[in-house]
Amino acid sequence: MNEFIVSSTYFGIVLSIGIYVLAVFINKKWNVSLTTPLLLTTAGVIGFLLLFKIPYAAYAAGARYLNFFLVPATVCFAVPMYKQIKTLGKYKWAILASIIFGCVVSVATVAATCWAFGLGPVIAKSLAAISTTTAIAIGITEELGGIVAITVFAVIITGILGNAVGKQVVTLMRLHSPVARGLAIGNSSHAMGTAKALEMGPKEGAASSLAIVISGIATAALAPLILWMFF
User: Fold this and answer.
1) CB-count exposure of residue 219 (10 Å: 0-12, 13-18, 19+)
2) Mean pLDDT confidence for 210-229
3) Quick one: which of 96, 54, 191 has its CA closest to 135?
4) Which of 121, 187, 220, 224 is the most exposed place for a label (fewest CB within 10 A)?
5) What pLDDT is attached to residue 11?
6) DSSP the chain
7) Could you tell me the pLDDT band of residue 52, with boundaries at 50, 70 and 90?
8) pLDDT at 45
9) How far apart are CA 184 and CA 103, in angstroms?
10) 138-171, pLDDT tens digit by residue?
11) pLDDT, mean over the chain
12) How many CA atoms lie within 13 A of 89 on its CB side?
């Protein structure tokens, strides 16, 4: 069986889609944080590969075709933002201020933690862009001189957590405004969190989509200065 799987060109994409469909079914039956489709799919794929001792390279050979949909899917976030442009325009200065403040807190928290635990500047530079989307985070890390592999891992984990518990966290924080809820999720957990914000409502999704763009720019501009203050 393993030999057949390894030689199959489309094994990776079939496995990913199959487990995702199963994860959606499970989530509809038991709608809790631990059954979030993204979290279940990630765990399911890893578990399948480990159980049947299938090399990651064999999975990646087919799963790479999913990467072709990443850019179109990200661009689609502009649609809800366009539909809610008037609503977002009413709060433009509050939105801008909150996103910039969120970026400062995110980078400063990473820098302070690395400084306090003696992790060093390289780790801090690798984690500074933890709350931005992957493509932007990689570019920021490369410019800062961090380790891209650490950045990608941290960004993925952040996104998965935001997708799984973002709604519960903003509810716990008593954020009732749809715009505020969307900004909080998008500013902390980028595209994966935005997928959850879109499920919550059009205004949440629009605000979260906007947060992805502005937070990426703000982090790129402010991260070097904040890290310089600690190291």
Assistant:
1) buried
2) 92
3) 191
4) 224
5) 85
6) -HHHHHH-TTHHHHHHHHHHHHHHHHHHHS-SGGG-HHHHHHHHHHHHHHHTT--HHHHHHHHGGGGGGHHHHHHTTHHHHHHTHHHHHHTHHHHHHHHHHHHHHHHHHHHHHHHHTT--HHHHHHHTTTTS-HHHHHHHHHHHT--HHHHHHHHHHHHHHHHHHHHHHHHHTT---HHHHHHHHHHHHHHHHHHHHHHH-HHHHHHHHHHHHHHHHHHHHHHHHHHHHH-
7) confident
8) 92
9) 11
10) 889 999 999 998 998 899 889 888 888 889 999 9
11) 88
12) 5
Decide: 16 and 7 in contact? Cβ < 8 Å.
Answer: no
pLDDT of residue 7: 64
The token duo for 30 is: 């038991």
Indicate the residue type of 146: G
pLDDT of 4 above 70: no
Q: Would the pLDDT of 5 be above 80?
A: no
Identify residue 131 by its one-letter amino acid code.
Answer: S
- Tell me the residue length of the chain: 231
Q: Is the dihedral of CA 133, 38, 44, 11 positive or negative?
A: negative
The residue type of 28 is K
